[in-house]
């Protein structure tokens, strides 16, 4: 083989190697742990988001969704994304309240009880949430609200006295505080473990949405759902900033555009499905009732106390957000 042929062969091998390397880089895969079942509307929305990212990026980025805590449990997801064990994840925002009081804002009882008010609360607080996540190397992509929260019980409730000493499932520090102020006993149970916790008596009541009540088939252990509409908690989807920054600009744009669409779609679906979830509870012989006047009055007092406590913990930043929200209502 003469010198010319050897040079051409070497160039050919180099180009082949570059081509293979380029293809590998173009086929980036992200793992996305999520806490809820594949059939939950949040997870369905996430799967659509992942599909849209794959399509818009021309297959350059594939997001593999791992639902129902199958890859990491709910309380492990944020840490896993921060550590690079996963690139993108979903958590309940208020589950992070022990890190920063701001994360608890959307679970302050009776502060925002409708979709319209909940969205205004999110708009008032979003920039602050983004800044706090950024300190942990995370980029906020979008958020979607859950249906309004109610109280599930085995027995009828006429006042908070009926809950004294009852073990009630909690999913965040704020919810635990509310349960304590109601005279009951909070027990932290993740959504993926709720069915088992109810069936084994770990908890005998629950504060959650009609959606989670449906997912966990709460009617198999509980008889009542008091639709008090205490708050609308939100899930947030975030990505490792390092992983996001490693994408080319066009793929970054595809992710951001799909995230904006997922937020708009998710809020709409959440509101539309609320009535359907409540209807399913009724169809399975669960008694769906409003709170009695006495119970509602007691709960509102709990909400007032917890609002004051939240402002004290959140400080000037929290007061500024609360003022902006109230001005927008």
UniProtKB/TrEMBL annotation:
Superkingdom of origin organism: Bacteria
Pfam family name, one: DctP
Keyword hit for Signal: yes
Keyword check for Iron: no
InterPro entries documented for this protein: DctP_fam, TRAP_DctP_sf
Signal peptide: 1-26
Keywords: Signal
NCBIfam families documented for this protein: TRAP_S1
Name recorded for this polypeptide: TRAP transporter substrate-binding protein
Organism whose genome encodes this protein: Thauera sedimentorum
């Amino acid at each position: 083989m003469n010198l010319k042929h050897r040079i051409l062969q070497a160039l050919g091998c180099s180009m082949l190697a570059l081509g293979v390397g380029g293809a590998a880089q173009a086929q980036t895969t992200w793992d996305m742990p999520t806490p809820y079942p594949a059939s939950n509307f949040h997870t369905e929305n996430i799967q659509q988001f992942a599909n849209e990212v794959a399509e818009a990026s021309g297959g350059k980025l594939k997001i593999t969704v791992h639902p129902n805590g199958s890859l990491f449990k709910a309380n492990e997801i944020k840490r896993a994304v921060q550590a690079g064990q996963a690139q993108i994840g979903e958590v309940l925002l208020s589950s992070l309240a022990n890190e920063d009081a701001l994360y608890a804002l959307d679970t302050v009882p009776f502060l925002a009880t409708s979709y319209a008010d909940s969205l205004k609360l999110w708009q008032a607080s979003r920039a602050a949430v983004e800044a706090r996540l950024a300190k942990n190397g995370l980029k906020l992509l979008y958020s979607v609200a859950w249906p309004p929260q109610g109280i599930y019980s085995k027995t009828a409730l006429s006042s908070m006295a009926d809950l004294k000493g009852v073990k009630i499932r909690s999913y965040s520090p704020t919810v635990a505080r509310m349960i304590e102020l109601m005279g009951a006993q909070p027990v932290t149970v993740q959504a993926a473990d709720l069915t088992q916790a109810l069936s084994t008596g770990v908890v005998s009541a629950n504060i959650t949405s009609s959606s989670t009540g449906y997912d966990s088939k709460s009617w198999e252990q509980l008889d009542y759902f008091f639709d008090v509409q205490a708050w609308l908690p939100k899930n947030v989807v975030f990505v490792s900033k390092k992983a996001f920054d490693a994408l080319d600009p066009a793929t970054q744009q595809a992710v951001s555009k799909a995230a904006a669409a997922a937020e708009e779609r998710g809020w709409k679906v959440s509101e539309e499905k609320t009535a359907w979830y409540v209807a399913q509870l009724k169809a399975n012989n669960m008694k769906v009732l409003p709170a009695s006047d006495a119970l509602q009055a007691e709960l509102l007092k709990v909400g007032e106390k917890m609002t004051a406590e939240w402002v004290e913990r959140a400080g000037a930043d929290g007061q500024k957000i609360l003022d902006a929200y109230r001005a927008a209502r």
